[in-house]
Every structure is written in structure tokens, then in C-alpha cells.
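Deliverable D5.2: sample structural annotation.
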Amino acid sequence: MADIWPVILSGGSGERLWPLSRKLYPKQFQALTSDASLFQECAQRVGPDFGYRPPLVICNDDHRFIAAEQLRLAGILPETILLEPVSRNTAPAIAAGAVLLRQSDPDAIMAIFPSDHMIPDGAALRAALDAGAALATEGSIVALCVAPDRPHTGYGYIECGAAANDIGTSFNIERFIEKPDEATAQDFLRQGNYRWNAGIFLFSARTLLEELARFEPEIVTGAEAAVAGAERDLDFLRLDADAFAACPSISIDYAVMERTDKSMAVVLDAGWHDVGSWDALWEVSEKDADGNVSVGDVVLEDVRDSYVRSDAGLLAATGVEGLVVVSSKDATFISRKDNAEAARVIVDVLKRADRGELITHTRQYRPWGFFEVLGMGPGFQVKHLSLNPGAKISLQKHNHRAEHWVIAAGSARVTCGDREFTLNENESTYIPRGAVHRLENSSADPISIVEVQTGKDLREDDIERFEDLYRRE
């Protein structure tokens, strides 16, 4: 059988799990139920240790360094990280991946994974992938499906026709159905031949491009031009922006799956869950005797069937039931647990108000590590900086602020004007306004710095770069 190439789609804006998930740090990069993020778990389930080819990751420019760092920490070396210059939904992204993989492996079987799903039983997933890959090798376009255990209205459904094997694990697909209403979902459950669409697909790169050429030829033309014009940038491959932007914005479901006559379904019985809301996260998390999920510094008294999370200080609750309470350092969200769309409603309100809490946390990730805002006031701001081993900030200057650095842990190499020197733990230095400077970690461990900024303008865009290891403009 041809090689299976995992393709991990890592987009999204993180709206339904706000305030934990933000536009610049969406839910797939969060560790929700284990020490690993959903993105890392996805890559590890189909890693080279199980006989698969290295994963092809497709993400946008804003998330590129987060994806690369999380793969490094997980011990996964990707085939490449393909960067979408603009969002065009899943069909153009997958098409670009197919064009790229076809260049090195004309018989490549692609296994498409959303990066934000939970699949606890990796062995069962791999068994389903093997079954799907066998069908894909014969020219089928395969969707993995999940037997429903309740009339869920937040999932798409697949109507399965006749079984295609003796053990009833693969089926012909009659049709795809978008998210149904409650009555329709109840009817699907009673009929027994409807299954949830898990959003995981298998097909050969060749077959996928042939079907796209039938239904959406502009996508194939755009994807081929975007790959032909792609440029290598460090560990990333940047698709040509103009060519990719010319692709219609359409999902792989609409572009191919609902129109092809080659579709097949394979049953996935692996505990799949898409963790698409706080209620869904409560459902898959470990609970106490009262049905509560508690994360962080939480004290509960007379509380039942609730999800309570604090990423800041102490959060205490009493005398409530069926709630979601999530407190981060800059936002608190409270809703009924049974209202799966509550966070999205609040997000829409915040969008209209142009609130920055939708975009970033107080902790913001950079290619060299992260910084976190500890406090601010008139004319000052205090941050905690953490630099990864071997990392360094760009050679830069600020026109409107000065900075004071105190080394809290580790040892840093500092450039300030024409001076270069080493700062050790519990030592400090001053960077005047307008001075060209750089901070570097040449050690094998992360280092921590407390930075105090002073000045009339403390915006992040007050930066002029002269040299940058990460090629940021």
C-alpha cells in the first residue's frame, strides 16, 4: 500500500472556547485535558513511530512559530510547515498540500486531520486509517464517521448506505447533512444509519486533484500556481499570496465530498470528540463526585455539574449548578453550561466593541519565547520575558520608551549600542530610548527577565528592527 502522509490543518480563531482560546493562540495549542496540546496530541498519534510519513502542517502566518515550537517540544520533525497567506477555507489548503506531496510521492495517500480534536484511542484511530487508506489506494475518497450516542445538533452527519465489507465497518455514502435541528437529529438517531462526520478524510493526492479539477478547477489552478511560486522561509514554506488568494473560499466538504461519486465511509470507534464548546470540554474532562470539573486554584462548595477554571488567582463558588466559569488574567466568562454558543455570542459583542481581549492573552508568544504583561500604569509597563535556548530578540531600537532589564533566572548576552556584555542572575541593565539593543540566550535552558518599560508611548509597534533571526518585517 502507498505511504500515508498525515496533513494537519491548524487554522481557526478560537471563538467557542473564549477566553481561554484567542485569535493568536487558539484552542489547538492549548493543553486542555493533558500536558500536551491538542495540536501536539494530533501529531503524536500519527507520528513516524507508527509507520506514517512526517506530517505536513498547514497553518497561517500568525501561528507559524507556535506550531514549530510545539512540534519541537513533542519531538516531531514535520515534512514542512506550509503557510497560508490568506484564509481560503479547507479545500484550497488541502489542494496546495496535494500539489506539494505529489511532487515527491505521486502515489501519496493523504490523511487529513483537524488539529483541535480529541481522539483518546490512538490504536483504534490507526486501524481506521489503515482501512481508509486501503480504499483510498483503490481510488475512493474516504470520510471517517462516528456512531452517534445522542442527537447532537453541532455536528454534520453522514447517511450511510450499504455496508462495503462483511464486518460493517465501511459503507457507501448516500449523502452528507449539515448540522441538523433537534427533531432531525432525533430522527437520525432512531434510524440508525446516520453517523457523525468526524472531519477526517483519506484520499490519494492524485484522486483529490482530479475531483477538484471536475468541480472547482480554479482551486487546482490556484494551488498549483501558489506552490510553484512558494518561497522557503526558515522552516516554513510560504505559498504565493496572489495565486492562493485567487482560489475560491470553500470547504473540502462542499468542494468535493458532497459532489463526488467516489465517496466511502469508514467507522471510527476511538472516543472521538471535537471539543467545540465549554460544555463539550466538561463532558470529556475528569469530574468530582458532584460532577464538577475544576482547573486551577478553585474552591467549590455546594456546586454541581459545572466547569470552573481559573488561570489567575483564587476562584470560589457556592450554591450554583450547571455553570461554566472561566477566569483568565484579563477576562472572566460565565454562562449556563447547556448554552454551547454562549462564548460565540459574547465574542460577537466584543468584536463590535473592537476589544483586544479577542486577539491575545496577557501572555503573548514570539518566535524567541514569550512575554507576559505583569502590570501597567501611567508611563510604565512591567513584563516577564522568557527566552528559549539559543533564542535572541531582533537587533532593534525603540523611539518612545526606555527599558530596564533584571535577570531573574539564567544568564543573558546583551547588546546595547556598541557594548556587548553578559548579565547573570540578579543583575540588571538599562536600555536608553533610541539605543540599538538585543537580548540573547546562548544557554541550554530558558532564561527569565523582568522588563520595566518607561515612556509616554508603550505600544508594541514602537520597534525598528535592524537584524532579525526570524525574518520578521
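Annotation notes: The chain has a mean pLDDT of 94. The CA atoms of residues 86 and 245 lie 6 Å apart.
The annotation will be released with the project's public dataset once the embargo ends.
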